[in-house]
Amino acid sequence: MTGKTDKTEQAAASEVLGYEQARDELIEVVRRLEAGGTTLEESLALWERGEELAKVCRRWLDGARARLDAALAEEAGTEGAEGAG
């Protein structure tokens, strides 16, 4: 049952990570996986953590893209309204 609790705690911790924190930790996870020398169990745990971190990064990037799109749409709407008047 400890494994499930650890995963729940990791997921909750991932939710509060900023983009840069998640990215940096993901880089470290990839570095450790590429270096090798870990047991199968350690490699699987690293892989799972990497997946969680990638999801955190994706959510941040999707949110940033949505904000940028909204700002660009607002700017285009403002320019269109000025030209119509």
UniProtKB/TrEMBL annotation:
Record carries keyword Methyltransferase: no
Location(s) in or outside the cell: Cytoplasm
InterPro entries listed in its UniProt record: Exonuc_VII_S (IPR003761), Exonuc_VII_ssu_sf (IPR037004)
Coarse class of the protein's main subcellular location: cytoplasm
GO biological process per UniProt: DNA catabolic process
Molecular function GO terms recorded: exodeoxyribonuclease VII activity
Keywords: Cytoplasm, Exonuclease, Hydrolase, Nuclease
EC number: 3.1.11.6
GO CC, any one term: exodeoxyribonuclease VII complex
Taxonomy, superkingdom: Bacteria
Catalytic activity: Exonucleolytic cleavage in either 5'- to 3'- or 3'- to 5'-direction to yield nucleoside 5'-phosphates
Top EC class, one word: hydrolase
Subunit structure: Heterooligomer composed of large and small subunits.
Similarity remark: Belongs to the XseB family.
Role of this protein: Bidirectionally degrades single-stranded DNA into large acid-insoluble oligonucleotides, which are then degraded further into small acid-soluble oligonucleotides.
Name of the protein in question: Exodeoxyribonuclease 7 small subunit
Gene this protein is translated from: xseB
